[in-house]
């Protein structure tokens, strides 16, 4: 059984103070112990304070929104994976479409980041997804397969079951225009089939696939009913604690 995983991607929102207030509130609003796994991905500047605040009752986990592939060195403004591990991060989002589009992150860099995250004993949340133009041209499967192939080149078969893939159609991110549960399920199923071909059926059965793109309290339950949707990656609707609490309690 794959445990449902709900991830909040705050992007460049919430100061340390705001993040702490949110974390205290959401801890009170969680579904009964262990039913779902909840991860907050705040800006880097909040990770330390949140790791201290959450350490007393670590029912909510921490993730980072990005990392550099090198361990350390002259990379002004960057953060290496080991720095995140030290702050009790368990997850790192890699290859988010905003990183790819706004910061020109390439498949090769994404691949090196995934390797760095695993090398530091954390779990990558590897984001993939097609643009509207690519979907319109019928290229969704091709794009997804290329991103998977390039991004996971360095991943050992033994790590594959732990992977988290986030299918985030670019046209659905921050637009209010989410993929239908059927559209999402179709791609998720194709992703799992890709894992069967490139790793093993057992790995494919264990790795989790999140859907991301305009997830809201009102569409979470219907998405989560699909057999290959194991969780959601939430941007805008994770900023308001009431709305995120409803998503986390979708059942
Ligand atoms: C995201 O940024 O990963 C995301 C899915 O954003 P939103 O929920 O706002 O579409």
In a nutshell, what does this entry contain?
The chain is of the alpha/beta class and 251 residues long. The protein is built from 11 helices and 8 strands. Helix 2 links the parallel strand 2 and strand 3.
Can you offer a commentary on this structure?
The protein has helices spanning 16-28, 44-55, 81-86, 97-102, 107-119, 132-136, 140-151, 181-198, 201-206, 217-224, 241-248, and strands at residues 5-9, 37-41, 60-64, 89-94, 123-128, 164-167, 208-212, 231-234. Strands 1-2-3-4-5-6-7-8 form an eight-stranded parallel beta barrel, surrounded by seven helices. It has 251 residues and is of the alpha/beta class. Strand 1, helix 1 (16-28) and strand 2 form a beta-alpha-beta unit. The structure holds phosphoenolpyruvate. Phosphoenolpyruvate binds next to strand 8.
Helix-strand blueprint:
Layout: E1 5-9, H1 16-28, E2 37-41, H2 44-55, E3 60-64, H3 81-86, E4 89-94, H4 97-102, H5 107-119, E5 123-128, H6 132-136, H7 140-151, E6 164-167, H8 181-198, H9 201-206, E7 208-212, H10 217-224, E8 231-234, H11 241-248
Parallel strand pairs: 1-2, 1-8, 2-3, 3-4, 4-5, 5-6, 6-7, 7-8
Helix pairs in contact: 1-2, 7-8, 10-11
The structure holds phosphoenolpyruvate (PEP).
The site of phosphoenolpyruvate has 13 residues, from β8.
Task: Provide tags for this entry.
11 helices, 251 residues, alpha/beta, binds phosphoenolpyruvate, 8 strands, 8-stranded parallel β-barrel
Number of E-type strands: 8
Class derived from helix and strand content: alpha/beta
- How far is the first residue's CA from the last residue's CA? 16 Å
> Could you tell me the strand content as a percent range?
15-25%
Spatial strand order of the main sheet? 1-2-3-4-5-6-7-8
The rough form would be described as globular
What integer value in Å does the Rg equal? Answer: 17 Å
Q: Which series of helices and strands comes N to C?
A: EHEHEHEHHEHHEHHEHEH
Bound molecules: phosphoenolpyruvate
Helical amount:
40-55%
**Biggest sheet descriptor:** 8 strands, parallel, barrel
- Counted by DSSP, the helix tally is 11
Low-confidence stretches: none
Q: Summarize model confidence as the mean pLDDT.
A: 96
